[in-house]
Specification:
The structure is a single chain. The chain is an alpha+beta fold and 81 residues long. Helices cover 21% and strands 28% of the residues. The radius of gyration is 12 Å and the shape is globular.
């Protein structure tokens, strides 16, 4: 299955693009997708943080199944006051 992947802020800088489309096997979870992305974009591994994840615009866990998901967004940690 193919998913649209969105990268925000420093993650987009690490990939050189704000979005990508990637083929993943049926039954894959967010962690498997991230592993595939790190293979494609090794700079993601050196960001120093674990991104937040949203699947079809809802926050998701790293072990969430991607079955039926069309879009996955990776966001850097948010802070501020």
């Amino acid at each position: 299955m193919t998913v649209e992947v969105l990268f925000f802020a420093s993650l987009a800088d690490s990939t050189g693009a704000p979005r990508d489309r990637i083929e993943i096997p049926d039954g894959a979870d967010v962690a498997a997708l991230w592993s595939r992305l790190v293979e494609r974009y090794p700079a993601l591994e050196t960001t120093g943080f674990r991104p937040l994840v949203a699947c079809d615009m809802e926050y998701a866990a790293w072990d969430a199944s991607l079955d039926g998901v069309r879009e996955v967004a990776f966001l850097p940690p948010v802070s501020g006051g």
